[in-house]
Amino acid sequence: MTPDLDMSQDLLEQVNQALAMDTPLRIQGGNSKAMLGCPVTGEILDTRGHRGIVSYDPSELVLTARAGTPLREIETALREAGQMLPCEPPHLGPDATLGGMVAAGLSGPRRPWAGAVRDYVLGTRVITGHGKLLRFGGEVMKNVAGYDISRLMAGSFGCLGLLTEVSLKVLPRPRHCLSLRLEMNVRQALGELAEWGRQPLPISAACHDGQALHLRLEGNEGSVLSTSRQLGGQSLESGFWEDLREQRLAFFDDPAPLWRLSVPTTTGPLELPGRQLIDWGGAQRWLKSSATAEQIRTQLAQVGGHATAYAPGDDSTAPLPGALMRYHRSLKQQLDPQGIFNPGRLYPDL
Amino acid sequence: MSILYDERLDGPLPAVDKPALLTALHDALPDLEILHRTEDLKPYECDGLSAYRTVPLLVVLPERLEQVQTLLRLCHQRGVPVVARGAGTGLSGGTLPLAQGILLVMARFNRILEVNPQGRYARVQPGVRNLAISQAAAPHGLYYAPDPSSQIACSIGGNVAENAGGVHCLKYGLTVHNLLKVDILTIEGEHLTLGSDALDSPGFDLLALFTGSEGMLGIVIEVTVKLLPKPQVARLLLASFDSVEQAGGAVADIIGAGIIPGGLEMMDNLAIRAAEDFIHAGYPVDAAAILLCELDGVEADVQVDCERVAAVLRQAGARDVRLACDEAERTRFWAGRKNAFPAVGRISPDYYCMDGTIPRRELPRVLRGIAELSRAYGLRVANVFHAGDGNMHPLILFDANLSGELERAEAIGGKILELCVAVGGSITGEHGVGREKINQMCAQFNDDEITLFHAVKAAFDPQGLLNPGKNIPTLHRCAEFGALHVHHGQLPFPDLERF
Q1: What's the confidence (pLDDT) of residue B3?
Q2: Is CATH 3.30.43.10 the classification given to domain B7-105?
């Protein structure tokens, strides 16, 4: 096992050198999310040496670790204390790191009920485009001092600065977990989910694969068992959810390009060429399709959603309206004036 | 150091020609209601932090979004500062007006535009009151979770600007966790939609950045909030302790047992006695501390959790654990806590409410530090604590009519916040920085961090016209503050010679 090491001064030096030489940097941890965004041309800045859990006190519900810490190491530490990352982040590779998890901001099947990665980010240490190692937020649940730079970092794909350390809120694992498979068509499943969403049911994941609705119930024994009796269906192996999260279900084997569609919960079945898998109780749809980006995005715009390609390319992230793009550029210009952090990763001109 | 805007420390403000501005506003917006006479402006001179007052240059009360847009464009063009305000219930002076600025009152935008039970969201205008959203959602069995204690009066636009909290944050989160989408106007009058009707949106998470930005980056014109199904039942346990250390330990034990209560509140002896005198809630007045622990959810789960928590509390040394026997008793137990501020107001002519957060394990040390400060400054301090999420509300008792007491209250308040920072906490958990904690920002952040905050501001409002002087101090102010105060990293001790 690689030893825990604080390499923040080396990282800072590398950034300062890049600033001095005006060389763009391509920030890389486990390289498990390379299929997202546009490929970056730049010198690789490897975060994996800067690793280790800095502090973890289960009764405070806070874990702080260096950005290069492997995600599985963090999950193991949490599991041993009976806790978890509620946002269930996808690894998408054996070497996923904490920094990559936060920078990509991807959340797993529990997302609609428990919240996203950014909802659990309490604080960060960041090396900025001015060559400073700064600290924002902290290790407390409530903190409204200054702008929320830490949450802004989540999902920013390293374009606004280099994350070196993150503090996360964590939660106890639920006492009971039970998964169900209910035979019904997509339309019926979306209708039922809308109805159940209005009741205090312990649903923590909901996926429709074209044949059946798959549900996960989590909570205390009483509510999980009574809900399972109420809903009926067959029991389902709990490994299904990890396979879904890690894109290991048979659905993902299809050679056609993969798209992630994020849509309002109330969206009905989407008519698009190719095959679909419904996740997040309807709010996230996986699409395997050879349709063009324009074709997919036109349809998504009509329902108020957006589409992300899971293949590197200039238009893999959905475009922004002009005014919003202008403020994105302005923010990038302010925080990374020399444009050294992952230039072009999110949008070609950022 | 006064917290009123000081051009020497906070930067020069543009000189505004009031008659010329009035004429321009009348010309551009003939149907906009504008207040400009001193007697009409006076009621707007402060928000919930009423110790500090500044009469604004003008007050405008728009009713249509186009008016707000035109107004902002005009202010941008003429370089006029704009302070936005909703219901004005904020406790940190976040909407304290400027003598050279327009106060933009958004209270008339008070329509609930849509309640969607299928999608579990509500789309509302910024002037809608927090509680009105839950009331509108109630027929569908839904509610809006964040519940700041001012929820009867405070408006959602202000909740977004301050990232408001409440007593249920540990389980249900802050405002930032309960928003889908916020529509804003920038100082240039540009309309931006942050977030979306889906659970995420492409690009940077500007919704997170904007939430809690205190009116510095844009004006909220519409908010889409998430609604949650109402929990079936809620049960409340009241535990009494002979020491605050034991009560603090009990909180850690409950969470260590894997239980996340809907609410978990602590009060110390002075707060208990004040509340009991006022509300007759049935609190044990001789206890050093009480814990209120509310468990909510589905009947069967809550039953089990209540038994589990009661056992944990006894194990942690509680001398008495009571389960509210019915809804009336539950409401009464909560009433004591929810009226703790006015209750303290009855035993002291004035009180000053602080809002620091700390890692929970530091509670005994911080309470000891507060007791020492209280003795040194000769002012009583009652402690009310959102124990679950580490958010303290020390209430400093003073009498503003006695010469020097307000200044002493401010000074001890500042010291308490610096103590929170020293143990790894924050100067504000939910009330915001506003003007109130502008100096303490210099204790929590170094000059480089403050500089980065200014860079964020510059990305949205390079001229600094939106709410100048709030939230982020100038480096100049921090230099002056640093010269006056012991710096962070060590426990602050009062410098009594100054009083």
Answers
A1: 84
A2: yes
